[in-house]
Amino acid sequence: MKLSQEVKKYIERQLSRYPLDKKALAQARQDIYLQHSAGGYADFRRSGTRGNSIVESKVMKLLDNRDIRQLEHAIEAVEDVLAELSAAQRRLVELKYFKDRDNQLVADELNISLRTFYHWRDKVLAVFAVRYGFI
User: How crowded is residue 43: how many other Cβ atoms within 10 Å of its Cβ?
Assistant: First the structure.
């Protein structure tokens, strides 16, 4: 099955963002840990709106939790599919999307033709499309 250009672009964008998303998730978790270990969301306590500090604190926690859940979901989707791929296909994803290498460089490193690269890439993107519910 041939994927639409929009679906391909969406999946490729998700794959390209994966390394950054992992870092962002680790940072968000660390920030929440530091805020909790420091006795809560101190920024609101200093803001002068003492009456709303508890409500604002809860809102910030919910926002943080929502952001973290979105990052976790995106990372989990990529990792689920990576676990299903062959070693060569995982390497293709790593080189092309995580390290942002040119198609020809990826093909050369995998010792395959450019035509085979495109064939493998399309198969990999189709697996991701299934995971994301596009197929």
Answer: 12
Q: Is 70 within 8 Å of 105 (Cβ atoms)?
A: no
- Return d(Cα 41, Cα 65) in angstroms, integer: 14
Give the separation between CA 132 and CA 129, rounded to whole angstroms: 5
User: Would you list the DSSP string of 38-85?
Assistant: TTS-HHHHTTT-GGGHHHHHHHHHHHHHHHHHHHHHHHHHHHHHHHHS
Alpha-carbon gap, residue 90 to 93, rounded angstroms: 5
pLDDT tens digits in sequence order for the chain, 135 residues long: 789 999 999 999 999 999 999 998 888 778 777 766 655 544 444 444 444 666 556 555 655 677 788 889 889 999 999 999 999 999 999 999 999 999 999 999 999 999 999 999 999 999 999 999 998
The length of the chain in residues reads: 135
What DSSP designation does 90 have? H
- Tokens 């293709």 locate to 92
Amino acid residing at 49: T
Q: In this structure, which long-range contacts are made by residues 49-55, counting pairs with CB atoms below 8 Å and at least 24 apart in sequence?
A: none
